[in-house]
TrEMBL record:
Gene3D superfamilies: P-loop containing nucleotide triphosphate hydrolases. The gene is gpn3. This is GPN-loop GTPase 3. The lineage of its organism: Eukaryota, Metazoa, Chordata, Craniata, Vertebrata. The keyword GTP-binding applies. It holds the Pfam family ATP_bind_1. It comes from Sphaeramia orbicularis (orbiculate cardinalfish). Small GTPase required for proper nuclear import of RNA polymerase II and III (RNAPII and RNAPIII). May act at an RNAP assembly step prior to nuclear import. Small GTPase required for proper localization of RNA polymerase II (RNAPII). May act at an RNAP assembly step prior to nuclear import. Keywords: GTP-binding, Hydrolase, Nucleotide-binding.
Length: 285
């Protein structure tokens, strides 16, 4: 029986922990079992129950306080994640093995973890060895995406995670509920972007011909290969959350091997039910 996991990634503050708690509530309302693992050793608080918490293994504060290491917050985090990569058996033990495993992994926000450090790739390979089908979920804050240059850099961040992890990836624009109606309209063009026309819109603002050529090449690459798309995520919109979940489930083929469960039988009516009395009671009241 395959197991399923969402690797929830994205820049700091993009809404990863909120996404996890919203998704847990949504899936539980659908009667689906789901568990969350906190993989952020610097996490302060999150409002979902965890099945495992990396802080039981190692904490950033302890690393920073260590006089022999002398790390700051970012170096400390990298140290923690490397320590984690050398101790995957802790995760294996914490995960256990239940039927229909579906796990959300709430990752830290440091972008270097996805772009050039090997730890996330090692984690994905390890999960795959444990029979997990993993989908990357890359979150970007929609507030930072309403301008085309910011959008292009968001696309590049998502793309670098995609290329380095080599797993199916669903990209999401979070915090859609915070956008003004005008910005919401504006952002529609970024959800299914036409990179060429975006490039044309901004060609006047780029002065350097070399930079212009580079931007054009990047836009062309993204557009020609349909590499990056974004789905909107508004935590108040159940229907939208469901669409996101469907995309993710589809990418890891969740549901294909599930066994059909018989619906619960409705209790039979008691044999000695007196309909006359029941009817009488209704008429009297
Ligand atoms: N209105 C609104 N606020 C959101 C949404 N998602 C996240 N936030 C807020 O954005 C802030 C950061 O959200 P988190 O979920 O902690 O973000 P994160 O990516 O886990 O942050 P780090 O773990 O620090 O990288 C919090 O104050 C959230 O309440 C959303 O969909 N709508
Ligand atoms: Mg978080």
């Amino acid at each position: 029986m395959p197991r399923f996991a969402q690797l929830v990634m994205g820049p700091a503050g993009s809404g990863k922990s909120t996404y996890c708690s919203t998704m847990v509530q949504h899936m539980e309302a659908m009667n689906r079992s789901v568990q969350v693992v906190n993989l952020d050793p610097a996490a302060e608080h999150f409002d979902y129950p965890v099945m495992a918490d990396i802080r039981e293994l190692i904490q950033v504060d302890d690393v920073m306080e260590d006089d022999s290491l002398r790390f700051g917050p970012n170096g400390g985090l990298v140290f923690c994640m490397e320590y984690f990569a050398n101790n995957f058996d802790w995760l294996e033990e914490s995960l256990g093995h239940v039927e229909d495993d579906y796990i959300l992994l709430d990752c830290p926000g440091q972008i270097e973890l996805y772009t050039h450090l090997p730890v996330m790739k090692q984690l994905v390979e390890q999960l795959q060895q444990w029979e997990f089908r993993v989908c990357g979920v890359f979150l970007v804050d929609s507030q930072f995406m309403v301008e085309s240059f910011k959008f292009i850099s968001g696309v590049m961040a998502a793309l670098s995670a995609m290329v380095s992890l080599e797993i199916p990836q669903v990209n999401i624009m979070t915090k859609m509920d915070l956008l003004s109606p005008k910005a919401k309209k504006e952002i529609e063009k970024y959800l299914d972007p036409d990179m060429y026309s975006m490039m044309e819109d901004n060609s006047d603002t780029i002065k350097s011909p070399k930079f212009k050529k580079l931007t054009k090449a990047i836009c062309g690459l993204i557009d020609d290969y349909s590499m990056v798309r974004f789905l909107p995520f508004d935590r108040t919109d159940e229907e939208g959350i469901n669409i996101v979940l469907q995309h993710i489930d589809f990418s890891i083929q969740y549901g294909e091997d599930l066994e059909f469960k018989e619906p619960k039988e409705v209790d039979e009516e008691p044999a000695n039910l007196n309909y006359d009395e029941l009817f009488q009671g209704k008429v009297d009241s």
